Amino acid sequence: MRLFPFSAIVGQDLLKKGLLVNAVDPTIGGVLIRGEKGTGKTTAVRAFSAVLPSKETVVGCRFGCLRGVVPCGECRSREASGELLVYEERPVEVVDLPLNASEDRVVGSLDLEAALREGSKKFEMGVLGKAHGNLLYIDEVNLLDDHVVDVLLDVAVSGRNVVMREGVTYSHPSRFLLVGTMNPEEGELRPQLLDRFGLCVEVSGEKEIALRKQIVDRVLSFEREEPEFLAEWAERDEALREQLVSARRTLPSVRVSDDVLHAVVEVVSELGVAGHRGDITILKSAKALAAIKGIEVPDEECLKEAFRMSLPHRLKEDPFEETSTGRRRLDVVLARFGGQGQGR
User: Fold this and answer.
1) If you count DSSP H runs as helices and E runs as strands, how many of each does the chain have, helices first?
2) Helix, strand, or coil (residue 121)
């Protein structure tokens, strides 16, 4: 299947950055993309998967165990028997979660009869097994059963899927990039679930004539498979892939000063954000953005963008106001946040 080049997407800068920072630091906890239909949400997600660096997985492992990550029980058994695990490079895939998926289809199922009769654990892998090392995409996440969303978000944070049935337990690694899309006109997610997504970005159709024209031109060039168009943007996507590889190496050396940490906590508290996920996500996102830029201290731009991606879904709104009061308060705070990004 041909994918539209990620670098050729017009505008939607915050959306693209939300995806990229999760590629650099998956512990950020995924991104929720909110917007009306026809704004390229799905196109952007699938295009993004093609710029992700390849992964190293164990040959013959059904979970695709990754180098550097605690392997599944089956791989550990192979090692215990003296087998040397061999790794191969594979591209990151998009794993789709169907809206009608049951909990067993998501987490997997255990054969209880085999467990009781033979004492063996026969596990049928679910979506979370296939998602390990990949991008897990949930379109219209707001229409998915709340309990299933809860389970997905728990595993996204822990990196491990644990299935318990009648006293029998089975677990396997499940580290993935979580991306959800939704159209707010079709219903909202519960606040408790919204908060569990690391980032949230809003997308809308471009209103500026020049940008709308550019979008149409690029889509038509892609559909006609114009060689010059495909070659140009394939080269840019490859450069972006190399930038992500470099950013992952740089991330451990990115530091945040005590002044910036204090300023972030102060701003989040002033905005009345409950809990501490917002503070942590802002700092992680700012560091990932700095790594992408190749700098070792987040600058003002990194911090402001981290705020704009980490807080919109965590701000309380006044139900009696027609406009978004939370966003207005965030804009006011960020307007006087200049200069706080310069670390020491």
Assistant:
1) 14, 11
2) coil
In this structure, are residues 330 and 312 in contact, taking their beta carbons and an 8 Å threshold? yes
- Tens digit of each residue's pLDDT (9 = 90 or more) over 287-319: 999 999 999 899 888 988 999 999 888 876 544
Domain final position from 165, 180, 203: 203
Q: Give just the sign of the alpha carbon dihedral 325, 331, 334, 335.
A: negative
Q: Please check whether residue 118 lies inside any domain of the structure.
A: yes
**Nearest partner of 313 among 124, 96, 33, judged by Cα:** 33
- What are the residue numbers of the active site? 277
The per-residue pLDDT for range 14-45, each reduced to its tens digit, is: 899 999 999 999 888 889 998 888 777 888 89
Other beta carbons less than 10 A from residue 91's beta carbon: 11
The count of structural domains within the chain is: 2
- Whole-model pTM above 0.85? no
Structure tokens at 303: 């911090």
Which residues constitute the domain of residue 136?
6-54+91-203
Q: Any idea what the CATH number is for the domain that residue 293 is in?
A: 1.10.8.80
